[in-house]
Design goal:
Layout: E1 13-18, H1 23-39, E2 49-53, E3 56-61, H2 64-80, E4 88-90, E5 94-96, E6 99-106, H3 112-125, E7 131-135, E8 138-143, H4 146-157, E9 166-168
Antiparallel strand pairs: 1-8, 1-9, 2-3, 3-6, 4-6, 5-6, 7-8
Length: 171
């Protein structure tokens, strides 16, 4: 049995890196955006709407310009609710019958190529004691030094990644 305790060292500390959207905050943002669109004069009579369509949001309006404005309102509400815009996967406006639509997906989980990028940053730039391993759509980061783990979190927060990261289960 070769656990950290039998080797005389202290147990490793660790944390997980995840990318998850708080569904309640997303719902609140959507509800606020729907209210604003219903009340604003510039959205009267243009068929502007936002609704859930399965796991995606469907934005609609009579013109491409108005549907982009609907997206803008939605993004503002997400920012206010503390949901990173990196969690949104907005498509391009497309015509559908007499209206324009934009589909917006919510990104949950870290894609494999993003996970590899994050692992490489940790390997190349984090303190040497820090190790990471990809576990499905999240990463587990371990080190004997809690300070090195804190430094790693700071390092990743300073990077401009395409994915919204949360750091959880710090122990």
């Amino acid at each position: 049995m070769t656990t950290a305790a039998t080797l005389g060292g202290m147990a490793d500390s660790s944390f997980d890196i995840v990318s998850k959207v708080d569904k309640m905050e997303a719902d609140n943002a959507v509800n606020q955006a729907q209210k604003e669109i219903a009340q604003r004069y510039d959205f009267k009579g243009v068929g502007a709407s936002i609704e859930w369509s399965g796991e995606k949001l469907l934005l609609k309006a009579s013109t491409e310009e108005r549907v982009k404005a609907v997206l803008d309102v939605l993004e503002q509400k997400f920012i206010k609710r503390g949901v990173s815009l990196r969690s949104l996967d907005s498509g391009e406006p497309f015509a559908s019958g007499k209206e324009f639509r934009i589909e917006v997906g919510l990104k949950n989980g870290i894609a494999s190529d993003d996970a590899k990028k994050i692992s490489k940053i940790i390997r190349d730039e984090a303190p040497k004691s820090v190790k990471s391993q990809i576990q499905g759509d999240e990463l587990r980061v371990q080190s004997k030094s809690r300070d090195d783990l804190q430094a790693t979190i700071a390092l990743l927060k300073g990077k401009d990644l395409d994915v919204a990261l949360q750091f959880i289960n710090f122990r």
